[in-house]
Each structure stands twice: as structure tokens, then as C-alpha cells.
Please model this.
Amino acid sequence: MTTVGVLGSPRRAEVDERGATALPSGVRADWIVGADDRWHAATREVGVRQRRLGPAPALETAMRGPGGDAVQRVYGAGGRGDVVVWEIENASPVPFVLAVVVQARREMRVRVEDAVVVVNGAALISATRPPMRWSAGSSGSASAAAMAGDASDAPLRDVRGVEVVLLWPVTHRTVQRLGFTLDGSAAPGDVAAPGALPSIDDVVAGWAAQLRRGMRVDLPDASLQTEVDTARADLLLAATSVARPDEQLLVSLEDWGFDPEAAAAWQRAGWRARQAARRRGRSRPAAESVLSNVRDALVREHGNEVEILPAPRAEWRGGSLDVRDAPTRAGRLSYSVRWHGERPALLWEVREPVTGLVLRAPGLDDVWSTSEAAGEVLLRGPR
Model:
């Protein structure tokens, strides 16, 4: 599952590997495409692929159909009501029907006001136009009716069911945009229209800008670099979505230099979490363990003594490596490693260094040390 949302809001949605989206209200939304040959349900089709759009918490899920793909993109866009956007692109040369399957554990009361789908009195989905057809009933029965051609074209007014299917036509080479409201109490008139929300490109660019602060790394391992960038984005998203941060979240925010988020998280954390964070506990959930392990490989500190690249991975040898603005108690550290044959060249700078600063680089040269806050040196290399 991938968490999507926007910074500054605690509301989140969870997206699975096939694009199904679980909302905070307990409602789940799946998607089915009616093509020339048959209905294609993303939950069951073999030809479904998903990728993350860079480090941003934004997903693209493609489902193969006759002549081309149906492509779903999911991302947090903010706006009134805290909206998660679905973009469904018809990348094929022929039109298809998009069926959005809305399911809940209890019976829903559903109606449409203008182009807003209202569930139990609150806005749930905003669209550019009302659904063309719909069906409602028990779990599985509404989907079966829609795929059998029995969906209704009557106005959708106060229907009931634990499953409701909403159908929109999507012409070839076009995109249907839907906004799912995360605020479970938003009135229909209080949600943003899909066309007023940021595009996927805007959101990806916004996340890239967010990740240009804090501690940044440029690693010689492309796969690990992707993991780190993704984990940093997930860490930022978790910083505002967790009501009572634990010590792992506090430590990771501090270690990676997200100072405003760390300060806010400290205010919300309980006494035990703050005490544990001060002891620098090292157990981590999955995304944060990547950050913890990489941080420990790149920077370690012991009072006024800072170790540069104390535990480099074997596959990093010979590759260029950069660290920018790593927060330490001795100052904010940046450094670069470049190789000249078997010998590494180290360039470093510590901003606002403490008195008595000592730098070492045990992973590059086990005898070298300096008290200079900036400089460059050709080291002898690991032994």
C-alpha cells in the first residue's frame, strides 16, 4: 500500500498495487473499464502494471486493453476538502466506459448534486460532469448489474447500497478526472472542481522542490538512490499525518534535517516518545529503516567528533558520492567523494562548527583526521 495526501494536512488515502483507493471515511474505490471486447477489472486483470512517479507519493497504474492501455494516476492535490485525484486516461484508439466501484462496510445513501457524488450527506467525488449511468446494491451485485448492461440512466437521487457503481464514458486519447474528498464532512458546495486542482506534473514538481531541503544525498547506487528519495517523501508525508509521532519518526525527521516538521512532531509526541528519541532509539518501520541505514553509512557522530563515510558499502567504491546539509551536533556537514584510481579525494565543509570539532573518515582512510571546518584532501583509500 502507498499512502497519498498533501503536506500540512493529516488526512490520507491508501492505494494498493492495482489502484484501489481506501479513504478515511471507510469507503473503498476500485475501477473497471468496459472496452470493445469485455469488462476489465483492475482488481483481477493480469495485465496491470504500477509505478511510482518519482519520489512523490503519486502512482500510475496501467491496465492493458484492446488496442491500448487504460491508465490511472492517483495523487494528493489538496484543495477544499483535501482531495485525492484520480486521472483515468484512455490511451487506446477507441472509447471505453469507466466504472468506479464505491464500496463500504455499511449501507450508503448516495445522490448526485450537479457533478458531485454525495455519500451519507457528505461530498465524496467531484467530477466534470455527472455519471452517465449507475447501479447500486449489495457487495458484488451492483458491479454485476453494471457489467451486464443493467445500469440505470435515471437521475441518481438517494439510492442505497453497500456498493454503488458510477459510469462515465471516456473517449479515445482523453482523460477523465475525479476528485475524492478526504474530509468526511465536506458539503457538496465546499469541494474543489477537478479542473481547479493541480495537475500531476505540478504535484510531482512540488514534491521535487520539497525534497531539495534537509539532508540530500547523491549515491553511486541508482536503486538505493530511488529508495532513499522515496523514503524521504514518505517521511515528510508521515510527519503531518501521525497524530502522536513515535520516537522513530522523531529521530528520522531530525537525522534528515526536516527541522520544521521535527519541531512540530516534538510538540505532538508523548513523553515516552520524546524520551526514547533523546536516547536515539534505532528500531525503524520499513521506509525509515532505509533512511536510518543510509544515514549511518554516511555520517556518524560522537560528541564533537564526526565520522565521514564510516561504513561505505562495497559497491560504492570508485563511484562519486555527495552529501549535503547533514545535521550533526557539531555543525551542518556537506562533503563529496571523488576517486582517482584507488585513492579517494574528499572535499568537505561544516557550517557553524562547534569548538573542538574533529572530522574522521574511517571508511576511506583509517588514520586521517582534521579539525578544519572546510578543505580537501587525497586520502590513501580503504585497506
